[in-house]
């Protein structure tokens, strides 16, 4: 498994685990309006048109968006929770 695939699998697993098992995550489990969702970018000012408005949508999008977007957000630390 290459590094990007490993990151995708790990991140998706963490998001899914949190969604299922963490009582503290109740606030994170809500569905937010589109303008407050997580917008995926491949670079600064280069939105790819994918927005997640819930943890479930985020977990799905992690498997669907381009590699550049995953790497861009990992490098910025955007996937940290807390």
Descriptive notes:
The protein is α+β, with helices and mostly antiparallel strands. It has one domain (3-76). 48% of the residues lie in helices and 16% in strands. The chain contains three helices and two strands. The chain has helices at 3-21, 55-64, 67-76, and strands spanning 38-43, 46-52. Strands 1-2 form a two-stranded antiparallel sheet. Strand 1 and strand 2 form a beta hairpin. Helix 1 runs antiparallel to helix 2. The termini are far apart. The model has no long low-confidence stretch (mean pLDDT 85).
Task: Please tag this protein with its features.
single chain; 3 helices; 2 strands; two-stranded antiparallel sheet; 82 residues; 48% helix; alpha+beta
What is the domain total for the residues?
Answer: 1
Number of helices: 3
Radius of gyration: 12 Å
- The arrangement of helices and strands along the chain is HEEHH
Query: What is the strand content?
Result: 15-25%
Please give the largest β-sheet. Answer: 2 strands, antiparallel
Task: List the SSEs and their pairings.
Elements: H1 3-21, E1 38-43, E2 46-52, H2 55-64, H3 67-76
Antiparallel strand pairs: 1-2
Task: Give the gist of this structure.
The protein has 82 residues and is α+β, with helices and mostly antiparallel strands. Helices cover 48% and strands 16% of the residues.
